[in-house]
Amino acid sequence: MDFGLSDEQEMLQETVKGFLDQEFSPARSRELFNSASSHDGALWNGLCEMGVAGLVIPEAFGGGGLSALELSLVSEVLGAAAAPVPFVEHSLAARALARAGSADQQARWLPALAEGTALGTVAFGEEGGAWGPRSWSVRVEDQRIWGEVLYVSCAEVADLMVVGVEGGGLVAVERESPGLKIQGLEGLDRTRSLSRVEFEGVPCAVLSTTPQLAEETLAVGHVALAADGFGAATRLLDATVEYAKTREQFGQSIAQFQAVKHQIARLGLEIEPTRALWWHAAYAVDHLPDHAERLPALAKSHVGDRASALARMAVELHGGLGFTWECDVQIWLKRILFDRGYLGSPESLREDCARLGGW
To answer: I need a labelling partner for 58 at 20 to 30 A (CA). Which of 143, 269, 308, 326 fits?
Structure first.
């Protein structure tokens, strides 16, 4: 079986990368660190003009109608740039609405989500770092919901939230609904914000009442986050190689020292073999239904661990500079750690895989 990318998929990545290389840099990220929101509206608008916002939305509603693999390929590029945009969260909300929304809901929201004039996110986090449908506690009754969710990414700019509720169902909530309160949380990754969202009798539209749609949505999120973390890790690897070539000690670049060469080689061995893992997981989401939940969870857990190990070694290879705020290494380190924990830690996902396997 050939898991190489098609010409169209390679072109998709190259196009998004070319735009980011021209329009975005770590210096721009730093400008946003002290602002009210980590969301870069100008960058997001530019990506929307390229069709990124509607990548997984059906063509009938103005989207690209593409698969989880294309979604993940774009996530890889955005992770490498540490782009402060809610691409994964937005895509998950749009995909859930496209799968289960009513005709009226789809006609109202999907064209706007595809254009990027409306922004979506998902609200799945519970106390204690639980993310799965079995842990959700938000109560739904008579088209209204009560409760709270944690770690909602980009809630302050989202127009539509897809919320996980008791029993594993999903509901859609509009941001301006009465009874909805958003409180910002202090997060590690400055390129994506986190919030606590409270619901006090908030009107909602029921998308599903069983866990199937939620599990599908989480699976897509898992593989997209694995790709994002992979992209961030490869960017760190490249940055570390360049630093080693230019940093001099004892009259020569540290890249000439055998110990440094071995450590850099180890960085590559940490991350590059995981590429095939998340590619296969993305393929499974759309083509292997028997493995569509387990493989993305395994991919996210393994990539998360390996990318985190690489990030820590990359910081150390930058010496004392690597531990400072001024060094850009910390931007990708924090992004990798966010990807590792968001929508499920490696430990919790491996427990889920064991449960799915009947262990």
So the answer is: 143
